[in-house]
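Subject: for your reference before the review

Hello V.,

The reviewers asked for a structural picture of the protein, and I figured it would be easier to keep everything in one thread rather than splitting it across files. Below is the amino acid sequence we used in the manuscript, unchanged from the supplementary table.
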Amino acid sequence: MKSKKIALVVFSLLFYLVGVGSAFAAPKWYVCNLKEVGQDLGGGTATAYLRLTDTAGAFKNKWFKLETEVDRSLATALTAGSLSKPIKIYTDLASGATYPTVLNLYLAF
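And here is what came back from the structure prediction:
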């Protein structure tokens, strides 16, 4: 009886870790080429979108959302675009969001 309880606990723990593990994937850094920039002015809050392609091939022509420090992030992205330089973004692709949020953005050299 005791071994059945232990087996059940171990099985439940493994099931939980396998089923939920991907939901808690950590955000990662990606070096991307900027393809397009746009801003949504509706709804009272400024939201900007970037269409990016990862230089390592993780995604191609994927749209991302800027929600915080929108003006500064847009300035950085537009500077990178005008200089034909890549940008480095910190985002969570595993979130499953249609437009993953860019948590941080840098001009990559």
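For the response letter, the relevant points are probably these. The chain has a mean pLDDT of 82. The longest helix spans residues 2-20.

Happy to draft the paragraph if you're swamped.

O.
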